[in-house]
């Protein structure tokens, strides 16, 4: 709206407001109705706002994940432990996203890594399994399995199977 239009509307409103005679019973009734409607809207709005604020505060207290510690943090703890144990022989590793998961019943993150250990010319693929407690954020289990070396049981089964 332009300034000229606003001035025109304000002049119209001033003219209509000046015509209101509060001593007239009809005008008093209309004024009471309008004032009641405005007060009702304000009351409804304030009650609605209070209910909304109370509801959101309750929802913020409900935590669907009781800790801010997540799978990424557990992967960092396991990765640090793995790099400390394997040292310079660790060439590269990655998280096995398909197998890594959170165990709700025990409250632990089960993190699985596939790592290459050895020298660049000759290395073995090692599976690293570690569990991290969600509540105290500590490593509770760590195990390495070298997949390049056949377990004794597998050779025994081949011997008996032949």
Cα-atom radius of gyration: 37 Å
Number of helices: 4
Give the number of DSSP strands: 5
Shape: rod-shaped
What percent of residues are in strands? 15-25%
Per CATH, the architecture of the largest domain is: Roll
Biggest sheet descriptor: 5 strands, antiparallel
The percent range for helix content is 40-55%
Q: How far apart lie the N and C ends?
A: 95 Å
Number of domains: 2
User: What is the CATH fold-level name of the largest domain?
Assistant: Nuclear Transport Factor 2, Chain: A
SSE order, one letter for each helix or strand = HHHEEEEEH
Unreliable stretches: none
- CATH class category label of the largest domain: Alpha Beta
Summarize the structure.
The protein is of the alpha+beta class. It is built from four helices and five strands.
Describe the structure.
This protein is an alpha+beta fold. The chain is 49% helix and 24% strand. The protein contains four helices and five strands. Strands 1, 2, 3, 4 and 5 form a five-stranded antiparallel beta sheet that branches. It is rod-shaped, with a radius of gyration of 37 Å.
Describe the SSE topology.
Blueprint: H1 3-18, H2 25-61, H3 71-86, E1 90-95, E2 101-103, E3 108-118, E4 123-133, E5 139-146, H4 152-161
Antiparallel strand pairs: 1-3, 2-3, 3-4, 4-5
List keywords for this structure.
alpha+beta; Nuclear Transport Factor 2, Chain: A; 5-stranded antiparallel sheet; 4 helices
